[in-house]
Amino acid sequence: MITVMKSFDYRDNELYCEDVKIEDVDRKVGTPFYLYSQKRIANNYRAFDEAFKEIDHLICYSYKANSNLSICKLLKEQGAGADIVSGGELYKALKVGVDPKKIVFSGVGKTQEEIEYALKSDILMLNVESIPELELTNKIAGKLKKKASVALRINPDIDPNTHPHISTGLAKSKFGIDISGAKEAYKKAEELKNIETMGIHMHIGSQITELEPFVDSLEKIVELIKELEKEGIKLRYLDIGGGLGISYKKDEKAPTSGEFAKKLLPLIKRLKYRIILEPGRAIIGDAGILVTKVLYIKKTKEKTFVIVDAAMNNLIRPTLYNAYHEIISIKKLRTTNSELRTTVDIVGPVCESGDYFAKNRELPEVKSGDLLAILDAGAYGFSMSSNYNARPKVAEVLVKKDRYRIIRKREDYSDLIRGEEI
Ligand SMILES: *Cc1c(COP(=O)(O)O)cnc(C)c1O
Does the annotation count 72 as an active-site position? Predict the structure, then answer.
């Protein structure tokens, strides 16, 4: 069992990432910036891998959680494949040197160009999400004189009890092939001459903090596998997707990858299938923080606003998903004296009322110039960022022990007009 050490912690009241003092990074890089712990990423990956060691498995790290090349490279070196959802992510995975036979491609709206790119790259399999996509894939494979390796993404109609925007396995969702029509879809796939049906795929949502939805879905999928075998359809891969949540709130306990595996292994061990896992958030979520500087404290009749230099364009999760992120000062402030705590809204400079990181949050008194760390921002942080309000994207920094490296430089104004015409 690998124990995951704390990677962001105070020493003498100063916040460190591994052995790097975060204030020192600010002096070189300037806020806002994302900061990741290499050790934490590797440990999260290894814990996941270790948890499934008793069965034949492949971890395809989900690129959309964070596809910085250095992070993807680090995971590739640990043995990870890639779970991709676009031609752009395929391009990045190949750039990093991921073995194409470790790449799986999901998504409800793959274009002709993307399918072609995937087939030409000889990836492990396309996770096909509809009959029309299956037919188009067959046609393109024929044109390329190739056989397309596919899995069908099956929608098990299970409620994962997560935010509706990240819930993907309900009958009303756009994802996958309805489980009631799954057998027909497999029969159809068997008839198409340029399709090789290799597997079955499910992915029921993200930030799932209970194990029951995974178990319930997997039971349905295993049942389906048995029915398919009765029909003479024999598969080799069972891809159980990603979605394992993390603990954003201190008092909220998400299952560990070990607990996740322990619950699922009994269901899948007997199948003798190669198991594919697609974790994203569980690998990178708690390995990254967003560091931001307090610009102003603004008191109105109703509220106190802490205005910081990061904004919703850098981290959209609070406003998009009503997500909670722990926010701490990089200098440990005395928090025991309740008189020194205030209730504030932490907001950014963007011209939207939805531009906030926290509302009615109790915080020790902070002042202009102080640095704050928004925790657990490694997943769906930078990867969902935009240039809204013509704000250059921020730098990303990777820490390894007592050293750090800029793995994406801060954009400048010229980046904002790249490709535009006057
Ligand atoms: C987003 C996604 C994942 C990763 O989800 P996490 O919640 O980050 O683990 C895995 N598989 C597919 C198909 C996805 O769309």
Answer: no
